[in-house]
Amino acid sequence: MRGETELQKDTDMFESIRGALRALLIAAGTAALVAGCATSTPSGALARYDLGPPTMPAAASASAASAASGASTGTPDIANTANAAALGASGAARLSPLKVVVNAPNWLDSDLIYYRLPASDGDQARVYANSRWLASPARLFGDRLRVALAVDRPVLAAGDPTAAPALRVELDEFAQYFDSASTSHGVVQIRATLFDGPKLLAQTTLRAQAPAATADAAGGTRALAAASDAVQTQLIQWLAGRVPAPSTTTRSAPTSHAVPATAPRSDAAPGISSPSSSPLAAATR
């Protein structure tokens, strides 16, 4: 009888242990499921950012102000930029039209927000898990650039049949750089090439950076907006006096070779074009 009692106790203990293990496995499975859902965050939970409302670049603002000053005094300021001179004393005249195309490498042709760790941590490029751009950096930067340029001149799409010089901008860098765990800055670098028909007129590389107020995606996107404005101001200053009136070559170019806005990007070297292509064959936006 005593043996049967002890056997029953052992059986009850075994059942108790088995029940506890079953409960533990169920809890572990639930935790894994929750973790899996957290990893694939639904799109509605993502924070979306853009570069903010367009602002008038300092270069364009100075041109407009100096033009207005010349109109009120009747005396031109010899320190005015080429933009101000083109605007004229009345401010009604505008600069020559310009076709604008903005391209970017594949890694920037998405809505991912990139940040880079310090060199001491391997200089790694990573993306924010729960934050995204509203559109690709190339699209956001290009739209903002066209608004800035349109202050002083007509801005045309790549496929517009109107004869005009062309500006091609390659977005080379667009990321938040961390100097430490608490400090970072936004970096924007572009390569700009100016064409008059098939003729390469000039090329430059411009770079700007701006500090981030916070070490997160919100701070990084604001810093990148400030750096974008700084680069675009540099670009407008660089263009001053370089954009010619449409040349005979440009005016005589057949419109049938205009590149549609959806044309795929070309890897051909800048300034090299065949008789049936255009320097803007890389236009994607």
UniProtKB/TrEMBL annotation:
Organism, as annotated: Pandoraea norimbergensis
Biased amino acid composition, Low complexity: 245-258, 266-285
Coiled-coil annotated spans: none
Pfam families per record: ABC_trans_aux
Protein name (Swiss-Prot/TrEMBL): ABC-type transport auxiliary lipoprotein component domain-containing protein
Domain (ABC-type transport auxiliary lipoprotein component): residue spans on this chain: 102-234
Region called Disordered, residue ranges: 245-285
